[in-house]
Specification:
Length: 91
């Protein structure tokens, strides 16, 4: 399995728009084959940070996810609204 923790730092003025897009991404990604878990969390200590936590069956399903229509449509917009740091774990 593969786990991605995607930390997003976002300015307050962009939070609502970004969260709306992330929620759509979460909903559509949860329905994909190979998706074990996919959710978004808001930091309780930093108002400007949220995290997308993804767990995938294997690298093939993660690659398929990054090639999906919704990923290609939503992610470029999300990237314009925040700064990203990704941690990847394989287990």
């Amino acid at each position: 399995m593969i786990r991605l923790n995607v930390f997003i730092q976002v300015e307050e003025k962009n939070q609502s728009e970004l969260l709306g897009m992330v929620k759509e991404l979460v909903e559509l990604s949860q329905a994909e084959d190979g998706c074990i878990a996919y959710d978004v969390f808001e930091s309780s200590t930093r108002f400007d940070v949220m995290m997308i936590c993804e767990t995938w069956k294997d690298n093939e399903t993660l690659i398929a996810h990054t090639q999906s229509e919704h990923y290609k449509r939503i992610m470029p917009k999300i990237h314009t609204l925040g700064q990203f740091k990704t941690e990847k774990f394989e287990f």
